[in-house]
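Narrative of activities, Objective 1.

The group set out to show that a structural description can be obtained from nothing but a protein's sequence at a throughput compatible with the screening campaign. Below is one input-output pair from the validation batch, recorded exactly as produced.
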Amino acid sequence: AAAAAADAAGAAVAPQEVISGDQINGLQEADWKAILAQPSVVFARTTPQQKLKIVQMCQANKHVVAVTGDGVNDAPALKAGNIGVAMGISGSDVAREAAVVVLLDDNFASIVVGVEQGRLIFDNLKKTIAYTLTHLLPETLPVLMTLCLGLPPALSTLQILSIDLCTELSPAISLAFEPPERDLMHRKPRNVSLDRLVSRQLLVYCYLFMGTIEAVACMMAWGYVFIKNGIPISSLFFSANDHWKYSADDSEPFCVDGRCFSGEEQKEIMLEAAGSWYVTLVMSQFFHLWMCKTRTVSLFQHRLDNVITFWALALEVCLVLIFIYIPGVQDVMGARSVNFVPWLVALLNGGLIFVLNEQRKAWVRRYPAGRVAWWLMW
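Output recorded for this entry:
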């Protein structure tokens, strides 16, 4: 009868997987491991103490346990489970107080909706973190370049703050409104001890994968400004002590290959280079945002109806144009107008980000159980 009831509820249970309350009392630890290793099991005619024992043994075998019930006898198991679910209409007061979740409509389908919403929130938080952490390496690299290698400053303090508080803020927030991916409810339950909100895979993706790609692109756009002015990159090392100051009067003439640059010329070149780094970084993130919309599904198979994203990216581009091209604002931000080169570098970098991420997602979908996929799936 218990097997028939489970089958009617949609669980494929073989007769030998039905364990009665009388059998539970004689089970040893090895028996419990064998029983709980099966895909599905039915426990029939159990007492409140036996229900509690079932929950405890499941937890001892590293299972996350959800317990449903409506009566007083279910209260101990509801309290002990990782999540207790009680009936709001037919459930007893004791059961409702012991539970974490109360189904107001007494409909078990509501649990599925709740699981989907929980997975969606977790997914979107991960996407927001992945997007935000990626810009930290290309944002802090200019400081390290100046401190360790004596190179001219590639970003001013206000530029760094404007990235964190202005250009990156609205796109990051927009990911919180992203619709669910197609495979969201087909994924296996996550391993809570390994698949954390900020996992090793996520940090590798942000810092070693995407962060490095964006940093290299920024360095290319930044270095181009010096090269086009006839200044080899090799001559810039350890030159920031006496040259490349924000106040032109504080800079000594910088001479290379028979040509000398005054303090004012150095400042203009440095500020244009900083503007190039800024544009490349922010616009690379513009393209990266689209790749953060999905973790495993191809962007072509994902709903693109998150209107907030379009408004956020429009605001981001407007802020870049204001900070880089509006006279007066340039001086405050520590930048100068740039030509098409950093925009082109960002566009090409965006194409590279798109191709690499689509390949990463395709690998995860094709070989989900592989070791490589484990590292690629953040």
